[in-house]
Amino acid sequence: MKRIMRQRFVPGHYQRELHSKLKKLTQGSRTVEEYYQEMEIQDIVEMQNCVALESMFHKAVLAETQLKRRSSTRLNTEPRRPAFNRDTKSFAPRPETKPLAT
Q1: Which is the most buried residue in 44, 54, 66, 90, by most CB within 10 A?
Q2: What is d(CA 33, CA 38) in angstroms, rounded to the nearest whole number?
């Protein structure tokens, strides 16, 4: 039901605008993407069993390079969007039905 309501009443460009605003959002000099990558690196390192500081540093560097590679390929590929325009659908209300008299 929620999906149907969203398709009918939310313009198609609304989701794209929100995503664009999120990408442009910054705190200080860092973007949301940079903060997210840092948190991902911390999660990856915390899941590893690292006893020495050197091995923890090495795992963090590996995680950082993997995430940078993954994000650079994600930026180069545009998601495919359907060609139809949802904004052109017109809304036609249902005719009111009267209860049957018994």
Answers
A1: 44
A2: 9
pLDDT tens across 70-100, in order? 777 765 555 555 544 555 455 455 556 565 6
Helix, coil or strand: residue 83 = coil
Separation CA 15–CA 21 (nearest Å): 10
Instruction: Give the predicted TM-score (pTM) of the model.
Output: 0.43
For the chain, the first-to-last Cα distance in angstroms comes to 33
CA dihedral 75, 69, 44, 18 (to 10 degrees): -10
DSSP three-state, residue 26: strand
- Residue whose C-alpha is closest to residue 24's, from 16, 49, 53: 16
Domain ranges of the chain: 2-75
- Supply 84's token pair: 């139809």
